[in-house]
Each structure stands twice: as C-alpha cells, then as structure tokens.
Amino acid sequence: MIVKISDYGKIDEKYFVEYRVYGLSAEQMNFVNENLDDETVIFDEELMIKLYFSSELYPFQSDVAKLRLDDFIAREEIEMNIFLSSFLEDML
To answer: How far apart are CA 15 and CA 75, in angstroms?
Structure first.
C-alpha cells in the first residue's frame, strides 16, 4: 500500500488533508469506502480519503510544520498507512 498526500489546506473554515491510496485490492478499497466514516471516493485503482480537522488538530498549522513541511507530510503519510493497515485487519 502506498499513501500520498495529494492536497491540503482550508475550505469554508475547515482544514483538510486529502490522501491518495494505491496498491489496494478492489475488495480492500470497497471495505474502506463502505466502512470509514470520513469522505472517500474510488477512482479506478486508487482510493481518495479526505479528512477534516479543527484548527487545533490540523497537522500543518504549526510554525515548525511550515519550516519542515516535507517531514510533516511524510509523517502524515506514514500515520495514514499504519491506520489503514490496522483498519483493514477488520476485514479478516
């Protein structure tokens, strides 16, 4: 599974992070799409997940994040990969 952040920012006073997930089977994508409470969309062999955050919890809000943005993006991608791996364990 490969997780990449494709977009992030602010929409209508809500902060968001959009993830693109590659390398899942059709069955895994459908499981996540049907069981994850967050916004999800399936595009061919790719799953898009969009999470919304309050300003306090938004991962790219801090001054440190702005200075080391690549590190923060990589950490968020790793955390989403770990979350999805554990989420998919419920399929079994």
So the answer is: 18
Asked whether residue 59 carries a pLDDT value surpassing 90, the answer given is no
Instruction: Quickly count: other Cβ atoms within 10 Å of residue 63's Cβ.
Output: 7
Mean residue pLDDT of the chain comes to 92
User: What is residue 12's three-state secondary structure?
Assistant: coil
As a whole number of angstroms, the distance between CA 24 and CA 30 comes to: 10
Looking up tokens 């955050």, which residue turns up?
53
DSSP 75: H
Q: How many angstroms separate the Cα of 17 from the Cα of each of 11, 46, 51?
A: 11, 16, 5
